[in-house]
Predict the structure.
Amino acid sequence: MLEIMPDWLLSWFSDDSLEMIDYLTNGKHLTWYASVRYTLFAAVLSALFAIGFGLIGAALKQSGFFLFRWIGNFYTAIVRGIPDILFILFFPLAIEQGVEYFIARSKCTAEQIATSVNWPPCEAAQWFLTTNDYLLMACLSLGLVYGAFVANVIYGALQAVPKGQLEAASAYGFNQKQIFWKFKIRQMWAYALPGLSNIWMLLIKATAFLSLLQVTDIVYWAGLLGTANYFPSAGMVHPNWNFQYYFVLFVFYILLTMVSEKFFNMLQAKASRGMSVVER
Amino acid sequence: MKKIILPVALALSVLTTPVMADKIRIATEGAYAPWNFLDDDGKLAGFEIDLGNALCAEAKLDCEFKANEWDSIIPNLIAGNYNAIMAGMSITAERQKKILFSNEYYPVNKSKLATESGTKVDVDNIKGMKIGVQGATVQADWLEKNLGADNTIKSYEKSDQTVAALYGGEVDIVLAGDGAYDEVIAASKGKLVFVGPGYDIGGGIGIGMLKTNTELAGKFNAAIATLKANGTVDTLIKKYFKKGPFYSVTMDSLKDKISALSARVDALEKK
Amino acid sequence: MIDAIMNSAIIQEIILLAKPALFNAYFALASIPIGFPFAIFLALGKFSTNKWISLPARAFIYAFRGSPLFIQFFMFYALMLSLNKVLWKPWGIDEWVLHPLFIGPFVLILNTGAYAAEIFYGALRTIPKGEVEAAKAMGMSKSQVFKTVTWPNMLRLSWPAYTNEMVFLFHSTSLVYFTLPVINEQKDLMNKAGELFEKDYNIYLHFGVAGLYFLIASLIIFYLSELMRRRLNRHLA
């Protein structure tokens, strides 16, 4: 950074602050700043997964067939009763072991499967996962967890759409399919938005767990950079700066929440145009 | 509905295609200087990175290092996220139940206690102290067994955190394997000191691999033997640890000991 | 027969995780009784017309609801550690200030305080104005109005949401040992399940049973809270 700064700019700063600028723009720190992309990517992708699972969950919950209804209710209840962190650690490993189980059945000998103490029973069944795979898995887990919350919200919102509107549509001669997609689903979003906004807030906070799945996200780097360095050849020697680095994350997440809030307020204003019901 | 299911299905199909490993992936912690750490550019560096690359060049393997947190480094090897571990990991009987080790590439050396200068430590009878250590290490196991009854053992995720806790006064003493605290104590300008003679905990340091992966272990062992013989390992130890133990020097010191002994025998015989 | 059941892997696991479960229970039980009054004060603060009281309360609630608990744990532990030599040691309280059994509930109280305060604040805003006016008209003092109208109404209106918050709080206790040092064998459910998992890689057994404990705890909270809700609503029946 200092190399590309013009001399007149350099002369503005004291030596100490120049050293600080140099430190804050070294490769380690640039990698840290860039790792925000994992957090944002995971938040967006998980949200899409969550909406997908949420729609499936809501469809199951209001299904006429008791088994589907039962599955839908079980899905939303179990996620409410168990911490998200458990699911987030559980799903990627469980999916991995599950896939390896199927590969093992075809690729390993019966003897290997019966006697091996390690998992998977033979090398051929080993499923190698890269960091990006883990990121995808993490998003899938977050999607499954928050999908249950979304299912509840969408289920509630579907119930909230005034029956009169649908009857009116029917009177105008729309068929059942049209009524469902063009009226019920479309109106539903306006009722679901406040709930969805809350889930999004929970979701962005849950992205802090990515580091537990070996994704080198902002939390991972903040931990690494803040830890005291007493080894001159590993860079600037400094005491424990964990508090400073975590405080930056603390502020970062608050700002992310603020921006999201603004965005959802805008969306809400748009979605509820012409609707007197949701205005408060 | 189709629109939503499609990306899910796509992602799943991407996920379920097993990636065949032609590259040898080596995991390291990246937070255990001078063994392995992240340099200012955010890249992995250290004794084990240099040694690993030299070993791979010798064995004609295409290698790649990746960072993984210490406490999940063995589970993730077994889960298949990488093929080998080089992370200052001692060869122990406990770990050998789970994974296969190459021959050592760094000799057995003493683990040492460090403390703030001025703290009184009765090394032969440590009682009522708070002792910091990195979790899931041979040192942590040893402390639990030997000093756990009379002291409070605090385990941390990273080695550096033990030093931070010592500086911050959260613990009275810290224990770590060889080399981990040397530079720290040198840089502390007398604030931190080693106490006691040190303990023999764990074996030498080796490369961890899957139990089934004897082929890779064979390649690594051959390369380790070559690099030990041609002095590459010693050069790297010198570069990163400044001092021994060296493989060649260990032989010399043995000879010294033998000659000293024979001198004593001679003297005795003369009597 | 009984031996066979007792020796089954699941029962063994349940026994093994019983002690760790007590740690989660401790964190929740230590946080709720202090977090509750703290949240009430914050909510009343946010509701206050005095901006010197309202603004700090608003900021606190916003900050702690807007950031991950995971980060809050890391941050407060780092802060406590950096103050150790200047404050805690000289005062002679370093022994327990830095102990996870203290910092754990401390951070949980701050966090649940903010979340619950928002819930109570929401309830305060929806208390029927008529009831308050009526009480005032009857000549009640401010504290009497609070005791007879505001307080019971607020509690009744916010109870379902506060129940959810207590369940979330119990779940949050699983984060304590992800962020704080582990002392001797003091481990909670997630920590112990993770440790057991690293021995035999049976994720279904260890995480399954840990999940079971959380599920049962959640059901107990829901049950107790339902009893409380009935008490709060008995005049409406």
About this structure: The mean pLDDT of chain B is 83. Chain B has ten helices and 13 strands.
